[in-house]
Amino acid sequence: MSTRTTSEAAPRPRTSSSRALSVGIAYVLLTAGIAVTVFPLLWMIATSLKHPQDIYTLNIIPTSVTFDNYTAIFQDSPFDKWLLNSLVIAVVTTITVSLFDTAAGYVLAKFSFVGKSFIFVLILSTLMVPTEMLIIPWYLIANDLGLSDTYLGVLFPGIITAFGIFLMRQFMESVPSDLMDAARIDGMNEWRILVRIAIPLVTPAIVTLAILTFISSWNQFIWPLIVLQTPEQFTIPVGIGYFASENKDTSNWLLIMTATTVAIVPLILIFLVFQKQIIRGIAMTGMK
């Protein structure tokens, strides 16, 4: 019996060593992935702190640090106006998407009416249409309504989103219908039920949708590039592209790197403040 027990216990060290090897390989791969992801970010920040003659030097840490590039982007361009434009558009888009998508998701989840499934499938089908195919219709609508080169022209394609409706509908399905029936018996109307009962129960989903919408709106480039004409109306991504198209000298590369460094600061702050909600919301979205 003792010999058999010894022979059965012998493979255990191999299992532990193989597990340690797999964990080590995983750490190596993750470290390599982090390095590939973080290196361009560090290079961008380092370049924004360099003098023009040092822009092509292969140094992550600048030999001589300067903040003149940060002063230049505000003096040589309406960068403060671009920041304001991006902030206004991102905030308004986030508010409208959160409101309309939540209401639409509530209706599709908790109401029964003819054609509900067809409408939901039709909304989901719009996710399969590339944005590039919608730009021409959007531009014709904006031009006919006189919305070119305005905030509204940038805003109207993103006031409500199919992804947001799908996300909120899935979460609204988890809200107990008994609570809503009890509220109706007590005399509450549908708007009060939505605000007082449904929304508090799906707050993580709304926060996730709001954060993802803000980030997407902040980074939007193609549509603002087409609908905006005057530099004062540009958003930050379009303004950074304006630096690239204005000249081809090294100073413009410095301005591009500096402007991009400033542009990512709000997104980093949002992630640092709401990282728990982002991770929890994405995990809950995956489970749905």
Set out the fold topology.
Elements: H1 2-9, H2 12-48, H3 68-75, H4 79-110, H5 116-125, H6 131-144, H7 151-155, H8 162-172, H9 177-185, H10 190-201, H11 203-219, H12 222-227, H13 236-246, H14 250-287
Helix pairs in contact: 2-14, 3-14, 4-8, 4-11, 9-10, 11-14, 13-14
Annotated CATH topology of the largest domain: MetI-like fold
- Mean pLDDT, to the nearest integer, reads 85
Level-2 CATH architecture of the largest domain:
Orthogonal Bundle
Percentage of helical residues? Answer: over 70%
User: How many structural units, i.e. domains?
Assistant: 2
Features:
single chain; 288 residues; mainly alpha; MetI-like fold; cell membrane
Question: What would your notes on this structure say?
Answer:
Keywords: Cell membrane, Membrane, Transmembrane, Transmembrane helix, Transport. Belongs to the binding-protein-dependent transport system permease family. Its main location: membrane. Pfam families: BPD_transp_1. The chain has two domains: 47 residues; 211 residues, MetI-like (MetI-like fold), CATH 1.10.3720. Helix 3 crosses helix 14. It contains 14 helices and no strands. By secondary structure, it is mainly alpha-helical.
